[in-house]
Amino acid sequence: MAEAESYSLARRQRELASLYATAKSLTALGELDEVLQSIVHHAHDLIGTDFTYLSLVGADGRLSARASEGTISASFLAAGIPATVGLGGKVLASRSPHWVRNYGAATLFDHDPNFDRLAATEALVALLGVPLVIRGEAVGALFVADRSERSFQAEEIALLSAFADHAAVALDNARLYEASRNSLQELRIAYRKIEEHMAVMERAQAIHEALTGVVLEGGTPGDVAQLLADQLGGSVTILDGTGATLARRDSASNPCRAPSDSGLAEAVENAHRSGRCTTSVDAAGVARSVASIQAGDSYLGALAWSREAVADRGAPDDMDLRTVERATHILGLLILKERAVADAGERLSGELLTELMVGSPGISPAQRARTSARNIDADRLNLVLVADSPTLSSTDLSRHLQGIARDRSGLAGEHLGRATMILHSADDDQTVAEVHHRLRRALGGAVVVVGERAADQDWARAFSLASRCSAVIRAIGHTDLGATTGRYALYAMVFDPERVRELDRFITGSIGPLLDYDQRRGSNLVETLSAYYAQHTNVAATARALHVHVNTLLKRLDRVGSVLGVDWRHDNDLELQLGLRLHQLRGIPAAQAD
């Protein structure tokens, strides 16, 4: 028996080590096929089948192998079969694992004649397939096969599914990387087109050179607005995609009265719809020309140029309008650049945060160098914060934390589905309160921020405690606060895994007999007593809450007294209430952590 347990433990350790190795390989910028081959290799080695292969659905709707391990013929690897037939078709359609003892004799799915011939040549008999799922879509499958009949155990299916999840992450990362490269190429193409277009506008050469200078010198949209106002006169306003003002600049030598906001939204819409600069004059004699700022099909905002209308000049100078239109291209590039820089910074910050979390406790020289390059002293990062909002996703909430992290030389991102930040703190309570205040002001609504000090750079443990404490805080009804876990020390037994034995002892000592009785008899005495206290020991209210007759409730309460063997209404009333409440809360942090 001991030898079997030792073997099982050793195998489990090998499985976890292999899964960790494949997860770690996803952080390297290797080729997709190399990562997939590594996953297949580890899966083949651990499960111990005759051969293992991974197939993806191509653009033609056929399933073909991308990585393999074991003795497989060249014709088998080169084959492609429709993604709707065979065991692979069943796996893809159901997005769940399936296996057969004998593939050739299986009748649970439609067979592909060509693949059946290849399977017979390869002597494929037992086959297990698990899906590769990306955002709810099955994009391929991971298979293991034997040349003799056999059944596949639940442990094998679970292990193969874990490897398939790693392969799906690798594939998704590769697609995102390719999309990023395409976006960058599109941005470069757009920039070249703007340069070519600028070259033919000789009459506006001076302004165009100045605008180009703003871009090359790392200027902002506000710098462009000031340049246009100085060159064209009047005032220039830049609006974002929502219509909010990003910047407004006035000409020092030739200002104009502030135009009315009446009709601005309509003018922006007309410019956006027509793709051209539109001009109107309000009742006060202020002319306003509006041009849309776009990059490809993406609407980024609008540029509005206002100046005093001159009756005898008629329509505005065409060159000025063309200059306004061309300035929107420059603004489009600057806005895209600012977004790209911000996105890259957020992405890098999130990646570094995840690396520190996964690798903690401690920090490697490479990680220290990467954080130092961002002017962050990793050795001073001693406080982990977890934020949660009932109205905002963790991804959006992480973006708000990014700005705070930049101001405080910290790291922020989304870790295990939670908006997370690591930063230096001299006074944890004050730091958490300040972060909560900034987040609440930015969101305009309730948000919970929980902090836990990281001892010896063990950020992962601090994150776990803060996350579990956050779940408990919400469970007890607090929805808008900033606090450290120490403030909720009363509930530490619930959210601190290292104190689970204390929690078990207290619950067993207080309501253990009731739990045992419910488990043996299938009754609900714990639920009944919890509702009784929740209704402030009001029998009628408790009966209504439980949808039972008062007599039924009284019999249950009498049974509680029989099971506990004491006068529970007087002798240990407080202990019972605490035990019931802790029992309710016990499952919340673990479920939240999962």
From TrEMBL:
<dbReference type="Pfam" id="PF13556">
    <property type="entry name" value="HTH_30"/>
</dbReference>
<protein>
    <recommendedName>
        <fullName>GAF domain-containing protein</fullName>
    </recommendedName>
</protein>
<feature type="coiled-coil region">
    <location>
        <begin position="177"/>
        <end position="204"/>
    </location>
</feature>
<dbReference type="Pfam" id="PF13185">
    <property type="entry name" value="GAF_2"/>
</dbReference>
<dbReference type="InterPro" id="IPR042070">
    <property type="entry name" value="PucR_C-HTH_sf"/>
</dbReference>
<feature type="domain" description="GAF">
    <location>
        <begin position="31"/>
        <end position="181"/>
    </location>
</feature>
<dbReference type="InterPro" id="IPR003018">
    <property type="entry name" value="GAF"/>
</dbReference>
<dbReference type="InterPro" id="IPR025736">
    <property type="entry name" value="PucR_C-HTH_dom"/>
</dbReference>
<keyword id="KW-0175">Coiled coil</keyword>
<dbReference type="InterPro" id="IPR029016">
    <property type="entry name" value="GAF-like_dom_sf"/>
</dbReference>
<dbReference type="InterPro" id="IPR051448">
    <property type="entry name" value="CdaR-like_regulators"/>
</dbReference>
